[in-house]
Amino acid sequence: MTRSPSGAQGPWSVAPEPFDSPVAAALWRAYYTEVSDRWYLLHEGRGTDPDELEREIAARTGAEFAPPTGVLLVARHDGEPGGTAGVRMLDATTGELSRVFVRADLRGKGAAPLLLAAAESAARDLGARRLVLDTRGDLVEARALYARHGYEETAAHNDDVYAEHWFRKDLTG
């Protein structure tokens, strides 16, 4: 068994991963495919067009998670990549949390809280005093997760066309 960032023993580990590694690319593809299909099914009754999917995955490389102003974390379950969380600094004291994702087959096994704790620690290491994030209304599980872990819903901090809810958490208290 490995030790998680919280110190608990278990099958999970969380560590930084290069944003352009094969592991990061595979998890990004899984994440984007799921949230894109979910949006299109809800709004248009269809899955994502494959050409659009490839174009959007390629366009968002994750370079914003490169050091020294960002980090991409990967959670592994018994050594197998199972989830991600990314942090990028928006300014000297504000980090943005994104790409929080756990593979569907591993949900409910404790990865999301570990990823959040690791992302918050990484954000502090980057100099963040607060974390902000945005999410969509249909991602009710994500909104509940953030609320359970001390994120408070706030006014918009960006104009992302898909963002419907914005959250903030003070990391100094």
Question: Can you describe what's shown?
Answer:
- Residues 26-172 form the N-acetyltransferase domain.
- Keywords: Acyltransferase, Transferase.
- GO terms for molecular function: acyltransferase activity, transferring groups other than amino-acyl groups.
- This protein is α+β, with helices and mostly antiparallel strands.
- The protein has a single domain (11-170), classed as Gcn5-related N-acetyltransferase (GNAT) (Aminopeptidase).
- The chain is built from 4 helices and 9 strands.
- The protein has helices at 22-44, 50-59, 111-125, 140-148, and strands spanning 2-3, 9-10, 12-16, 70-77, 80-89, 94-102, 130-135, 152-154, 165-170.
- The strands form 2 sheets. A 7-stranded mixed sheet has the order 3-4-5-6-7-9-8, sandwiched between helices. Strands 1-2 form a two-stranded antiparallel ribbon.
- Helix 3 (111-125) links the parallel strand 6 and strand 7.
- The longest helix has 23 residues, at 22-44.
- It is globular.
- The N and C termini lie far apart (31 Å).
- The model is unreliable at 1-9 (pLDDT under 50).
Primary descriptors:
173 residues; alpha+beta; Aminopeptidase; seven-stranded mixed sheet; two-stranded antiparallel ribbon; 9 strands; disordered N terminus; GNAT family N-acetyltransferase; Acyl_CoA_acyltransferase; Bact_Acetyltransf
Structure, briefly:
By secondary structure, this protein is of the alpha+beta class. The protein has helices at about 20-45, 50-60, 110-125, 140-150; strands spanning about 1-5, 10, 10-15, 70-75, 80-90, 95-100, 130-135, 150-155, 165-170. A hairpin with a 2-residue loop joins strand 4 and strand 5 (about 80-90).
